[in-house]
Amino acid sequence: MGDAAIQRPKGKNTRWAISSLLCSIIILNYFDRVAIAVAAPELQASFNLSATEIGIVFSIYNYAYTMMQLPIGTMLDKWGVSWITRIGMAVWSILTIIFAFISGKLLLYILRFFTGVMSASAFPAASKATANWFPYHERGLANSLFDSAAKFSNVIGGPLVALLITFYDWRTAFLVLGIINVIFTLVFWSYYDEPGRHKKISEEEINYIQKYGADASDIPVHRAKDVWKKLFASRKVWGVTIGFTGYGYTFNLLLLWLPTFFKEEFQVDLLSSSLLTAIPWLIASITGVAVGGWLVDRLIQKGHKPDRVYKGVIIIGMLIGFSFLGAIFTSNPILSMVFISVGLAGISATAPIGWTIASKISPPGAQGQTSSIVNFSNNLFGGIIAAALTGYLVDKTGSFNLSFMIAGAVLAIGLFFYTIVLGDIKTVEFGKTEKESK
């Protein structure tokens, strides 16, 4: 589809305001995780936690978040993005405020668990909302914006929480974050709706997003049981799920362990470690939008076949991604940061495409379920296994070398699934065999 053939709506573009809302949700969703990481030493002192116990505080959120991924997909497809997201945001905002006033280890664990449960809808909801609001030739940029928001939260969230803790304390930091969450929940509650019901959208824009491939319906077409059965039997779903996990394992390893990596491997101070960590995430945020978003959409609008564009960027991005392994073969922290920045930039360019492929192969009305499968695998292997295995291996070996090599192997497996197992990027169809739908 060339640029000349696309007839864009004139005037206000409500869909991009929706995209801004989705980005804000992801930033706030990740602020919580960034805040816990930054506040960890203060929490250990306040609650008299050992290293193992603070590890439980980290992981219990991820267990709850991952556990909810599959059911949240069905809930999103059944009840829609609007209400599931509103309720999730409202409750996690209240839990964040309550966190500022708690005492006792048991309550700390319980609160972190339920915060993980209520935060679980963010990414599947953003993916489903993007599928509802954006045609295929704009979806790369829209997906890249909310995906890069997760990375950008590390750039602004860490310094913000650190400043609040430095000038006040960790309780003030979480209270401020909770108040910000409440304010934004009210904004989202009043503004977000589906395209066909939105008060601000024009008839011209509705026709535009439906004409060029957006799924503006929030109504499930098939029973949830039938959808799950079909999705789990599809090689295309397995292709994008394990492919995306190849990216997610490295992403989560670096998200959770990069500050410690710089501090322990190169014996730098906390401020230097924070700076060395922030720069790769800033570069990753920019690359995700510029390559995984703008460039992908631009190539498709110029008439290039979407499948070739998606797979071409995935192959190049993941191959560049292996550059992060160079970080363990140098004694120079700056050079190590450069290797990680290049590698993280490469895999970050592929992440928005993974969300686009997930929505494109999804049966009508089942984007939430498809996205939740992808995010479940991503968080199971990245958020839980990568986090725990890395800590164990660092304790046993005294370095991050083996952990980085395992991440490289998982990245290679992901590339294989994306390029070989996935096959053609077509909708998983009902009423046909998997062979017929390829």
Automatic annotation (TrEMBL):
UniProt main location, coarse: membrane
Subcellular location field: Cell membrane
Record-annotated membrane-spanning stretches: 16-39, 83-102, 174-192, 237-258, 278-297, 309-328, 334-355, 376-394, 400-422
Protein's membrane topology: Multi-pass membrane protein
Residues in Major facilitator superfamily (MFS) profile domain copies: 18-426
Pfam families tied to this protein: MFS_1 (PF07690)
InterPro entries: MFS, MFS_dom, MFS_Na/Anion_cotransporter, MFS_trans_sf, Sugar_P_transporter
This protein's UniProt keywords: Cell membrane, Membrane, Transmembrane, Transmembrane helix, Transport
Domain of life: Bacteria
Gene3D superfamilies associated with the record: MFS general substrate transporter like domains
PANTHER family: FI19708P1-RELATED (PTHR11662:SF399), SOLUTE CARRIER FAMILY 17 (PTHR11662)
The protein's name: MFS transporter
Native species: Metabacillus flavus
